[in-house]
Specification:
It is built from 28 helices and 21 strands. It is of the alpha/beta class. Strands 11-12-10-13-14-9-15 form a seven-stranded parallel β-sheet, with helices on both faces. Strand 18, helix 21 and strand 19 form a beta-alpha-beta unit. The chain is globular and about 90 Å long.
């Protein structure tokens, strides 16, 4: 990377190996530049105290508070001793405990009235929040020189509080920042001068000084405004360059035909398409008719009819003489798509067969577990062009698979697919094929602009007629065991009314990994619920069959079953022969059984918000209302319970995706899963900074159009190189 050498300096040269090692291992910081971009999480005012009443459980916190009381207690018949210190902020209290020989220094330092910064992990003991053996730094100057020097070194009214770890407290990070701060003057500014001045943003070196050592709140505001712009702009330039490069590629236009396969298909549909489906189909048809590749993201609520839109796009391409491939993340889903598409198309899917219509094509399935003969036939149909549509898992990507003329790639549930896989399939066309990515995880607009910034976005937010409402409830199994008994009664009632139910568990229960690990003694109810291994399909199915669901037909479905067995189980469930299906998340996407009305999700706290929303979308697909019960053993105060409450409270996937994002703190929107690189967003929050991202996208598009190689902007090139190390560059290339 062509970065300024000073900022490239390894931390071990500046801070010494021990501190640098902790920073690298626990905070992912390796260079002077990395540390300068490790911004304070918040600032405490010297006279102000942290609100203790709002501390999060189980998180590492740094608080500024005042000692109220301190006393030494003896236990074990007087042989053991502990120091209990109560600190206060006026709104609440927090207990600190120190044991054994570790009590002497705090006993001397932490006298009532003393102010200090305390750092530690918030735990619960006897129903009270506490910090055990916290690290602390005194803030009130007393006679000792050390304390006077401490206050001096934190001159200025605002104390920066850094994201810290148990191994490295905030004030130690602050001292390390003091050592590297002079280097900030060497930072190269990535923003074009006209943009910076037009928006009244401070230069980068000034922003770095103000974020780390502000004198006023206005300093912090100036610095944040500037640093957010950097992150948004550099990222959007990377994406704008991708979009620009895509417009330089050529693709075969695939224009819709007025009297072909699509027209025949539409004519036999037993229902009318929703306005949303019509509008999105038009956007896709317009893209397919151009001579550069479509790159479109189709996002829609669970059950909004995305498959129908994708199928109409595939039929358009077949009409235009090309082939379409649909990539599904699992075999269960590929088989399900193949089944539903051939059913929807009827005789139109019987190309070359007796009974096939004159406008017809062959629809083939290709998965890793197919028998040799069936596989050979499928490969032959693809290479000759006999099959216009192929549906498969990543078996489609293997070298052996050749297409006659691949015109469109549809990727289902994008977040399950590695970037390399999409890229490999794309390279199978004579020219780059058009690309349609579908996701049922609703993505807020700004995230779509950031994560999928090189894709145009279409949204389906209307549910087709005939979908039923889903009632969702949290079942607190530990606090109220009778609620769980009632849940099983509800399942029996649904089955009694002629319907079916799913029971979802986090794991399978037949492998070595499932054995509980021997651990230390459990502490709190939350720990109890956390430490116990997640409930398993095989155990739960057995308990239900012999217990609360005795007499009903219960089957299991999970990812390690043989593909034929999986398919047989799904067929029996779809045919209504099985009352209750106990499964892992293999049923999360695409499984469609309109007669299934109830779902019980065990250990629901072990799943993410969007995953729960996806799972819930498997019920209420017919005319009868759906019911989803979220079973958890988490205590009421736990954050996981709040998350489940949010899922139960709304069926709006876009609202839930915002909640999910706020709770997960973004991670790395550039796709950490794909690149394993540390988060590039430190200051920007995708939800709150919607306006900045939209404006940065506009500015970036203009800059790239005028100067695609950024020859006139060396500072921006440098920042881009730093963001797009090779792995990220690949990620964006393959997006």
């Amino acid at each position: 990377m062509d970065l300024v050498p000073v900022l490239e300096e390894p931390l071990k040269k500046v801070l010494g190996p021990p501190t640098a090692k902790v920073m690298a291992e626990h905070l992912g910081l390796h260079t002077v530049g990395d540390l300068l971009h490790h911004y304070p999480r918040r600032y405490a005012e010297r006279g102000e105290l942290t609100r203790l009443a709002e501390l999060p459980l189980d998180e590492h916190v740094t608080v500024v508070a005042q000692v109220a009381t301190a006393r030494v207690l003896r236990f074990n018949g007087g042989s053991g001793q502990r120091l209990e210190v109560t600190i206060t902020d006026g709104s609440g209290q927090l207990q600190l405990v120190f044991f054994g020989r570790g009590i002497h220094k705090p006993h001397k330092d932490l006298l009532p009235g003393t102010r200090a910064m305390f750092a530690g992990k918030v735990g619960v003991f006897n129903r009270k929040m506490q910090l055990a053996h916290p690290a602390y730094q005194l803030l009130s100057a007393d006679s000792s020189e050390e304390a006077a020097e401490t206050v001096g070194s934190w001159a200025g009214a605002l104390l920066p509080i850094y994201p810290a770890t148990a191994k490295l407290e905030s004030w130690k990070i602050a001292k390390a920042v003091d050592l590297v701060l002079p280097s900030a003057r060497e930072a190269v500014d990535p923003l074009p001068e006209s943009l910076r001045e037009g928006r009244g943003l401070v230069p980068l070196p000034e922003a770095l000084l103000k974020i780390h050592r502000p004198h006023t709140k206005a300093d912090v505001a100036d610095a944040r405004a500037r640093l957010k712009w950097d992150e948004a702009f550099v990222l959007q330039v990377a994406l704008a360059r991708r979009r620009f490069a895509d417009t330089q590629l050529t693709a075969a236009p695939r224009a819709a035909k007025p009297d072909g396969l699509l027209a025949a298909f539409d004519a036999k549909l037993p229902f009318t398409l929703t306005d949303g489906q019509q509008k999105v189909s038009k956007e896709i048809f317009d893209d397919l008719a151009t001579d550069h590749p479509m790159h479109r993201l189709l996002q829609g609520e669970v059950g909004s009819g995305k498959t129908m839109v994708a199928l109409r796009a595939m039929l358009t391409v077949v009409d235009a003489g090309g082939q379409a491939a649909m990539l599904a993340p699992t075999e269960v889903l590929a088989q399900q798509h193949h089944r539903s598409i051939t059913e929807m198309m009827g005789e139109l899917a019987q190309g070359g067969m007796l009974g096939g219509s004159e406008h017809s094509t062959k629809v083939v399935l290709l998965t890793g577990s197919m028998g040799t003969a069936a596989r050979r036939q499928a490969l032959l149909d693809l290479v000759t062009g006999e099959a216009g549509i192929v549906i498969g898992t990543h078996a489609l990507i293997e070298d052996k698979v050749q297409f006659h003329d691949l015109g469109l790639v549809v990727v289902d549930e994008q977040h399950r697919f590695g970037v390399e896989q999409r890229d490999a399939l794309r390279s199978k066309g004579k020219q780059p094929p058009h690309l349609l990515v579908m996701t049922a995880t609703p993505i807020p607009r700004t995230v779509a602009m950031t994560v999928f910034g090189d894709l145009e976005t279409s949204v389906l937010d209307q549910l087709p007629a005939g979908r039923s409402p889903i009632a969702s409830h949290v079942v607190p199994a530990a606090d109220k065991p009778h609620f769980l008994s009632r849940a099983w009664e509800r399942v029996r009632e649904e089955v009694g009314n002629g319907h079916q139910a799913y029971v979802v568990c986090p794991r399978i229960g037949d492998d070595e990994d499932d054995k509980p690990k021997k651990g230390k003694k459990k502490q709190s109810a939350e720990d109890e619920a956390e430490k116990r291994p997640p409930l398993a399909v095989l155990d739960v199915a057995q308990e239900l069959s012999s217990g609360p669901l005795h007499g009903l037909s219960v089957e299991v479905l999970h990812g390690r079953m043989q593909p034929d067995d999986k398919d047989a189980v799904m067929r029996r469930f779809a045919a209504g022969e099985t009352d209750v299906l106990v499964a892992t998340t293999v049923i999360e996407v695409g499984v469609n059984v309109p007669n299934a009305t109830a779902m019980v999700i065990m250990d629901a706290d072990r799943f993410g918000v969007s995953q729960l929303h996806q799972l819930r979308g498997r019920v209420g697909r017919g005319s009868a209302p759906g019911l989803c019960l979220l079973v958890t053993e988490m205590p009421e105060a736990a954050p996981a319970r709040a998350r489940l409450g949010a899922v139960a409270a709304t069926l709006d996937g876009f609202e839930l995706s915002r909640i999910d994002l706020e709770q997960r703190r973004e991670g790395d929107v550039l796709g950490q899963a794909q690149s394993g690189v540390r988060s590039s967003l430190r200051m920007l929050t995708v939800i709150e900074d919607e306006e900045i991202i939209a404006e940065a996208r506009e500015e970036a598009t203009g800059v790239v159009a005028a100067d695609p190689d950024l020859e006139r902007l060396p500072g921006l090139r440098t920042a881009l190189d730093a963001l797009l190390d090779e792995e990220r560059e690949q990620y964006l290339d393959k997006g």
